[in-house]
Amino acid sequence: MELDLFEKRSDYEWEIPRQGAMRVPAVIYASESLLRDMDRKVVEQAVNVAALPGIVKASYAMPDAHWGYGFPIGGVAAFDAEDGGVVSAGGVGFDISCGVRCLHTDLRREDILKVQQPLAHELARAIPAGIGSTGEIRLGEKEMDAMLAGGAAWAVQRGWGEEADLERIEEHGQMKHAAPGNVSARAKKRQRDEMGTLGSGNHYLEIQEVTEVFDAGIAAAYGLVQGDIVLMIHCGSRGLGHQIGTEYLKRMAMSAAQNGIHLPDRELACAPIQSQVGQEYLGAMRAAINCALANRQILTHLVREVFRRMLPQARLPLLYDVSHNTCKVEEHRVDGGTRKLYVHRKGATRAFGPGHADVPAAFRDAGQPVLIGGSMGTGSYVLAGTRESEALAFSSACHGAGRAMSRRQALETWQGRQVVDDLAARGILVTSPSMRGVAEEAPGAYKDVSAVVDAADAAGLARKVARVEPLVCIKG
Amino acid sequence: MAEAFEQAALALTAVITDPGAVRPLERIDLGCEAPDDELLLAEWLNALVYEMATRRMLFSRFAVRLEGTRLAGEAWGETVDVARHHPAVEVKGATYTTLRVAQEGAGWLAQTVVDV
To answer: Which domain holds residue B89?
Structure first.
């Protein structure tokens, strides 16, 4: 992308000033090289978002931004309900509350290597992954609604996890003001067999080793030491969230005109927060957040069961659980005052800084853990929220590497089996129900996650804490 | 236009697997409705996404009849067989990004981006 589109605010902050229909500027946080490689559509979408009613301060894009639908993936935008602000199904995404959860073990590399093959095999057996897979949990109507209202707290009550897990999850594991009644029968039916499943595409479960620590103080607060073994789970609200996104996208597109919203493009479908469809969506979306939190909680339980059999001495407490496709009501400082805003993060992670009341007490001095998933060959990162991120982007950071290549290109470039063999030669064991899926997710199809994380760190969005590299990858 | 919708459905399957590997063993009927052609295309694809997800099937043959704002469709396919189909991704839904239905020359164009 051409850099002359922007006014450069710093080496990592690029602004499109307010013009035309824009109500606020658009700001992209990235290094010059990441920005050059970004698709021009990211700017088009960030600019379109800047024109939506009630948007506050700016339309933001994170260093891993790539073009999505309506909002860019890696987009952050906050709206004020009192100022005619909107909520957008496309601004949250179809995979509502997709996120990353990190379990911290007391194991070391040698412990994993002794059982690497059978452990990978047992995890792949225990975790339903890929298309057509089903979980063992079937929820009747009442239990489905209880799950949609209760989230991870519901799962813990039913025996899938420990009470201590809940304080290490955003919203303490239960998104309030969820409205299961706003979730259609079709969305619930789509979820019927999918509780405790990983999904497909870029979803995964990895066993990883902490290979580098960048901030020893914060790492110590998180309990992380070089050589530690952690587990990361990346997945979301499964079919239920997808169906809610689909249905409300249509309702928002069809009701926009009668709500007085002019959509330059249908992909921007949204509704006033204070409208009926806006309120109904928020209730359904929060129920989907609970579905994602419950799902990751059940997967955590399944993982712990496998470890109990294979490595009975191991403990797997939850380090933290973040969601990166949400719209949440939060208080933020704007122009010297505090405002209640509806913050959309689509492919972006909440990153509250030190001292924030919503950060678990154990981490309050360090800032919220921000979990960044990379590709299966390159590694992932643990970052920490910063104080300055509040002023930069409503306390938000990137969420992953972001694709550099289309799935078709990747399929033409790599063979799944070869990717698995190459990674095995580097000590990374990959299991997947689909070799085509592995080829499409080849590490080379993604941007360099280190460059993305470095840019987030340099921009001040979040602080680099530790790098982790995979030993086992169970791909969806 | 109906044929363009059928081809769009085939393209949807091609995102997941090789449509040539999906045997048209079982037929399902489905219908949907939308106020205009473009939303109808998204509705049709989303109806197929829903059937794939809840029936755990893949489809390779399609027939579409259009009557005004209504679509009546048939899809032939089979239950997912992971070993044979190697399904790469699950389609979450059809978006409205680049959504377009238009007559171009002698043919029809039906396009959108699906989220995977």
So the answer is: 2-115
